[in-house]
Sequence to fold (150 residues):
Amino acid sequence: MLLDATLAYLHFLCIIALVSLILAEAALLRPALIAQSGRWLARLDIGVAIAAVAVLSSGLSRAVWGAKGWGYYAHNPVFHAKIGVFVLVALLSIMPTLQFIRWAKAFRRDPAYMVPAAELKRARRYVMIELHLLVLLPLFGVMMARDLHF
Fold:
C-alpha cells in the first residue's frame, strides 16, 4: 500500500512539473517577451522533455508495481486512450522544440535577432494545443480510478 501511494505521489509531482514547464513556455511565447526569452526557451524545453520522461516512467511504474497491476491496465481502453493522448502531445511538441533550437542558434549568431511573428504564433499555437490536450489526462485517470470505460 505504501509503495502504491509513493508511486502515485511521484507521478503527480512529475505531472505538476510537466504542466508547469509547458505553461512557462506558453507564457514566454509572447511578442513582448520573446526577445528576452527566445535565447533560453530551448533550455526550458529540455526541462519539458525530462519532465515528460519522468511522467511516463512514474506512470508505467505505477501501472506495473501499483495496487491494480499491469493486468488491469493492459486491457483498459481508457488507459490506452490516455497513453495515446500523451503520445500525441509528445509528437506535437516536436515542432516547437525544433523551433526553439533554431531560435537559440539564431540568437547566438546575432544577439539582435528578431523572431518572425509567424514562427512565434505557430510555436505558441502548438504549445497551447499541447496544454489543452493535457487536460484530458486527469479525466482519464479519474475514469480509471473509478473503473469507468468508454
